[in-house]
Each structure stands twice: as structure tokens, then as C-alpha cells.
Amino acid sequence: MRNLLALVPKRVQTATAAWVRTIFAQPDPASARDQLRKVARVLAAKLPRVSELLCSAEGEILTYMAVLDQPLAEAALDEHDQTSESGDRAADRSRWHLPERPSSVAVGWSGA
To answer: Could you read off the pLDDT of 23-33 as tens digits, one per residue?
Structure first.
């Protein structure tokens, strides 16, 4: 993100960052890919270098979605539960785009 914002004039950095954050707010990989392409199209007219960077880094940008589909996200949420002061597990799961699971299910690391 820093490299991207380095290509943007200071006066539009906040707006550009907001557009890019919409990519990461999508609930699934297909939506994130569509949003990335939409953001690239919107920014292409005024910020062509930013648009090119987004398009060329699509695979890297969308890698985070693979992590959300893995047990690692569950483990991170469990760790967050232990340290969170809010105690609002449902809100945390929603924010991280994870479905609610029964409280009796334990997630842990297995194997090596």
C-alpha cells in the first residue's frame, strides 16, 4: 500500500487509500477481484500508474483471501478472543468474514 500511495499526490492519498481498502472489504475472492478491477478502472483516468500497479499485483493483493479460507483465520480469531476486551465474538467473526461456529468446536494446530 505504501508503494502505491507513493505514486499518488498528497491531496488525493486519503481518497485513493479508501478506494483500495474496498478491495480488502469484500467477502469472497470473486468479489474482491471484481472490486480490484473496478477500482483500477476508476483510478486509470487520473492515476494511470496506480491503476497499472493494482492490475499487475492482482495475485499478490488477493492472496489474503486464501488465508481467510484457512484454519489459520480461525486460530487467529481464537487468539484474538483470548486477548480481546470487547468480548463480542459475533462482531469479530463478521468483521473477519468468518461464519459462526458452535462454541464447542475447538481449533488447534495438529501434526508437526
So the answer is: 988 888 888 89
Residues 91 and 54 in one domain: no
What is the rounded distance in angstroms from the CA atom of residue 92 to the CA atom of residue 71? 16
61 and 15 belong to one structural domain: yes
Q: Could you list the residue range(s) of the whole structural domain that residue 54 is in?
A: 2-66
d(CA 45, CA 95): 32
Which pTM does this prediction carry? 0.58
What digits encode the pLDDT tens for the residues 9-67? 999 999 999 999 999 888 888 888 999 999 999 999 999 999 999 999 888 888 877 66
One domain, residues 98 and 81: yes
- 3-class DSSP string for 25-64: CCCCHHHHHHHHHHHHHHHHCCCHHHHHHHHHCHHHHCHH
